[in-house]
């Protein structure tokens, strides 16, 4: 099953002591690139969070945001980091003015209070913090699950598009095969003309004749290219149905498809076939673009 590198997942869990919100956004990237925003009092868990992300998401640019709001009895032991919140507020206000609009101060304060390290936990015992982490981990796993489901749904839609593009190329290849049957008599007539000119030459050279014959046969024959292109298209479709997503492999097969299409266009020396080749290239470019976003 194909998986897109574009994904989104959010989860919210509330316990007796904290309200946890986890948000994950992913985009395409050659490698796994993780950016984490985590409250300072849980910063020691960043490596564990990164490991969970790595095991679940494999590839892509990942933006991970963890928000932990204390509630209940924990509020008494929690204070606002006023200096930092004030700095956030000023920066947000300056940003809004720089964009030529006046932001609502209440909304700016709300955003500032949600920024990292906006709260100071003065006294938190180890057992309470461990219980909080258990809740956070559940929220992280749920957000990752939703993000994975999102990626699978996007991958399914992309796979359907791939099948459309491949089918179109297959149909165009069938037209090329039919047009090639009409092209062969013209090639034969041109070749016979060249042969007659050689035979009428008083300085006729048998070796040169054989070389010319081989040259024209190799130059205009596209039989192998048609067979290889058909095989590559079949292989691409089979790879789409594989149990594991492999965008790099699909991209490689697409390159091989492009190589055969280009060779057909250059060797055919036929206007109708070249028009079909242009249409095949157009479909192939759509495939190549989409493979860059597949895990």
Q: Could you list some keywords that capture this structure?
A:
295 residues; elongated; two-stranded antiparallel sheet; 8 helices; alpha+beta; 4-stranded mixed beta sheet
Give a structural overview.
- The protein is built from eight helices and six strands, in the order βββαββααβααααα.
- It has helices at 46-57, 82-98, 105-113, 126-199, 206-220, 223-240, 247-268, 271-291; strands at residues 7-14, 18-27, 32-37, 60-70, 78-80, 119-121.
- The strands form two sheets. Strands 1-2-4-3 form a four-stranded mixed sheet. A two-stranded antiparallel ribbon has the order 5-6.
- Strand 1 (7-14) and strand 2 form a beta hairpin.
- The mean pLDDT is 88.
Structure summarized in a few sentences:
The chain has helices spanning 46-57, 82-98, 105-113, 126-199, 206-220, 223-240, 247-268, 271-291; strands at 7-14, 18-27, 32-37, 60-70, 78-80, 119-121. The N and C termini lie close together (10 Å).
Order of strands across the widest beta sheet? 1-2-4-3
- Summarize the amount of helix as a percent range: 55-70%
Estimate the global geometry from the Cα principal axes. Answer: elongated
- The first-to-last residue Cα distance is 10 Å
Give the tally of β-strands.
Answer: 6
Low-confidence stretches: none
- Mean model confidence by pLDDT: 88
What kind of sheet is the major sheet? 4 strands, mixed
Count the DSSP helices: 8
Helix and strand composition category: alpha+beta
How much beta, percentage-wise? 5-15%
Gyration radius, rounded: 31 Å
Spell out the helices and strands N to C.
Answer: EEEHEEHHEHHHHH
Q: What multimeric state do the chains show?
A: single chain
